[in-house]
Amino acid sequence: MKLICQGVELSDAVIKVTKALNSKNVSPILEGIKLTAKDDCLTLFATDLELAIEKKINAEVLVEGETVVPGKFFGELVKMLTNEQIELSLDDSQKLKIKYTDGEVEKKCFPVEEYPELERIESAKGFVILSKELKDLITKTIFSVSVDEGRPTLKGCLFEAEDYKISAVALDGYRLAMVNKPLEQKAEKMSVIVPARSLNELNKFLDDSDDIIHVKVENNFLMVDLEHTMIMTRLLSGDFINYKQIIPTDFDTNVIINKDQFKNSLDRASILSRLEKNNLVKLDIKENVVNLISNSDDGANLKESIAINLVGKDMTIAFNSRYLLDCMKAVDDEFIKINLNTPVNPCVITPCDKEEYLYLILPVRIV
């Protein structure tokens, strides 16, 4: 193998694929990055067998070939060579020579035949979505994913696609997030659970553009095909919670409130509430005002009033302020609707005039 490439492109590619490396791997070869030189292209590939990332860059390929270079070493070296033209060559003893303007480095590589091969997904099953819509779908749900090792299926987002619509659902036992987005092409009915870690990494590759993104599903794997980049993840197995049965549909109290005013008050209240174990903030809803109240054990108190449009009965209810803030940071509507029944029943937050998202939060019992 022998090739010439630009250091800035190589460094950027290495940074991207190393997101799929896991320092906890017991197999040393999974700490490596597979390099494949072919057809005027250098392909970098890394995986921990749960997440895989592939990135292609332009290269002048003089001799085709492939090897597996130690990832940490390679990454730390090439990030210092972004202004260089780099020559990579592999000799018969499996040593990779990295040549640049003022020097060269040699490093022993792993046997490429020992590197695991992941099957490519060729299935037509999946969905097609705009980059900005997929990014928004992930951003507005990912924060509600559970971190409980005892409930593995809740450590991912449920994706449900059918016809021209996709829904993403995440919950952790205290809150639930559901977001709906349009698809660009009609999709077969499908339901998969995508690990949160994989979605977080995927989100870093997406932008707010109208670029078309193809997502394919096959054999318990999901693959996202981006320009010059491929991301593949193993799906979570098991049954997701029947979330539809826990979402109330009728409410006794409906509050319409300015989202930014509510968020700003919650930000200030959280300064006090985060000193407490439960991050408690109380909402006292009366007539056309909600009084937001927060206290701390050291005697600090906060009370702010926000004008609202109230339909239904007055209520006093308390929440973990962080859960409310996470929702407010995710949505960009000027006004939102807070739907309530009793101080011990779930609160449901929705847009005022559409069905793009729904957030459910369990209240904190107060005496």
What class would the helix/strand composition place it in?
alpha+beta
How much is the radius of gyration in Å? Answer: 25 Å
How many strands in all?
Answer: 23
What portion of residues belong to β-strands?
A: over 45%
Distance between the termini: 72 Å
Q: Biggest sheet, open or closed, and with what strands and sense? A: 10 strands, antiparallel
List the strand order in the largest sheet: 11-12-23-22-21-16-19-18-17-20
What share of residues is helical?
Answer: 10-25%
* Mean pLDDT level: 93
How many H/I helices? 6
Can you tell me about this structure?
With 367 residues, this protein is of the alpha+beta class. Helix content is 17%, strand content 46%. It contains six helices and 23 strands. A hairpin with a 2-residue loop joins strand 8 and strand 9 (103-108). The mean pLDDT is 93.
